[in-house]
Design brief:
The structure holds 2 protein chains of 2 kinds. By secondary structure, chain A is an all-alpha fold. Chain A has 2 helices and no strands. The longest helix of chain A is centred in the middle third of the chain and has 69 residues. Chain B is of the alpha+beta class. The termini of chain B are far apart. The interface between A and B is medium-sized, with 33 and 36 residues.
Chain lengths: 81, 185
């Protein structure tokens, strides 16, 4: 056991272990960054679609009001004669 | 947090977002469809109102003619009685027969008041028979007006909004199908 620990604690080996760990962490961070980027792109698309949906719904409401007003207008303007 | 757990959370979040996008798109599509339907309804309502007004005036004119002319009165009563008897024979239901009789009378009366019709496209819309056109204004034939209104359906299918009655009248006035009537004073 002592032999293994003394082997690992040699400066050359320590550096190799450190570099390996850093490289693994770097790989993980890159993976997470890519996943986050995809998630962010999806969230942006969802936000855009929801905002379009809200604006379409608003137009739908206005369209309903416009139809009501149109019916009143026709009844009023055609009924006067 | 382990790498697997992180991936699972991200994957679940993306699935949720995908479902949200799908729902929002379907609601948007549905709402767009409703908007188009509302525009089509405007045209249908305008045509229905013109036709209703035309029938009312035809009926009034027909009644006036019937009361003036005894022979016509006999014809319309005969039409009504015939429809009543036929209605009774076919349906064996006195109310249905009565309805048939009344609609036969109504049809006969309207027939007597029938004429060619003109519409005044101004602030107050007016629908009158050709022989009752009075005063100046943009008079057009009813048939050509209906055709021009029908043409607007193409614009709706392209996603256009027709707006209010004046907007529709403006669009109709640009139609090549619209036939104006020039009344000599």
């Amino acid at each position: 056991m002592k032999l293994v620990v003394s082997f690992l604690l040699r400066p050359k080996n320590l550096r190799a272990i450190g570099e390996d760990a850093i490289s693994q962490m770097q790989e993980q961070v890159n993976g997470m960054r890519n996943q986050l980027n995809d998630l962010l792109a999806d969230a942006l698309l969802a936000g855009e679609t929801i905002s379009e949906m809200k604006s379409t719904l608003q137009k739908g409401k206005e369209s309903g009001k416009s139809l009501d007003n149109f019916i009143k207008e026709v009844q009023d303007r055609l009924g006067r004669n | 947090m382990t790498d697997n757990k992180w991936s699972r959370i991200v994957s679940n979040l993306r699935k949720e977002l995908f479902l949200m996008v799908r729902e929002a798109s379907s609601i948007k599509k549905y709402s767009n469809g409703l908007q188009s339907e509302a525009e089509y309804l405007k045209l249908d309502f305008l045509k229905y109102s013109l036709e209703k007004q035309r029938k009312n005036i035809a009926c009034q004119r027909g009644l006036a003619t019937v009361f003036k002319d005894k022979k016509m009165m006999r014809t319309s009563l005969f039409a009504s009685a015939a429809a009543l008897i036929l209605g009774g024979l076919i349906t064996k239901d006195k109310y249905a027969a009565l309805r048939a009789g009344l609609s036969g009378f109504d049809g006969a009366v309207q027939g007597f008041g029938d004429a060619k019709w003109a519409v005044l496209l101004q602030k107050d819309l007016a629908i009158v028979p050709y022989d009752a056109i009075q005063g100046r204004g943009t008079w057009v034939t009813l048939e050509s007006l209906i055709e021009s209104i029908n043409e607007l359906e193409v614009e709706i299918s392209r996603g256009k909004q027709l707006g209010n009655l004046d907007g529709i009248i403006r669009r109709v006035q640009q139609s090549t199908k619209l036939i104006s009537i020039f009344k000599s004073e």
